[in-house]
Amino acid sequence: MIGCMCIHGFTGAPFEVEPLASYLKDRTDWEIVVPTLPGHGDKLELKGIEYNKWIQHAENELQRLIEKCETVYVVGFSMGGLIASYLSVHYPVAKLVLLSAAAYYVNPKQLFKDIGEMFRDGVKGRLAENEMFVRYKRKIKATPITATIQFRRLVAVIRPILHQVTIPTLIAQGEIDGVVPPKSAQYLYNRIGTNSKKLIFLKKSKHLICHCEEREDLFAEVHQFLKQLGN
């Protein structure tokens, strides 16, 4: 049996990776799990939670999956991509998929463009329709600075072990991501230790890559990569 775990990002929830999880469920008989990291989900309660709790929770979920399945894949989005990389170093994971993975974060150039769009929508009285404003308004209010510090610590701890990733890896990144800059994907591609790795850029995609207009192409690429033998 094959198992696949999809891990969401910082201040996120399973919805971030749900479209990919559903795509794989519809096309395979794999056991698909999408955990909710501590303090995350529909209601953010991040105060007092240290980064190692996020890693431990993902480890526990992965261990359960490993007990049930002969082969296990891990997919990580944004901060989840760093956690997925960590898991692939310490557990018998067969393949790794990194989506908008946050080895770096905040792409100022694109963020200013997105803020410009928000401003224009605000002037036109359409701010409530602006997807980025709606998503991030709630997050900004509900994210304590201590949680952001924990996120940065997690990145700082995991980046030095990327060279220990030795399994086949697919890295996908949106070119107009305002949260994680494209250089993050290139950094991951250069740093991870495996020779079996592929990097793809999606020209029209922002940070929520599983919800972008190019998602069907992305999902087909992920599915093909995971089911390919000997890759």
UniProtKB/TrEMBL annotation:
InterPro entries listed in its UniProt record: AB_hydrolase_fold, AB_hydrolase_sf, Esterase_lipase, Hydrolase_4
Residue stretches making up the Serine aminopeptidase S33 domain: 5-210
Keywords assigned: Hydrolase
Domain of life: Bacteria
UniProt KW Hydrolase keyword: yes
The protein's name: Alpha/beta hydrolase
Annotated transmembrane regions: none
Keyword Hydrolase: yes
Gene Ontology molecular function terms on file: hydrolase activity
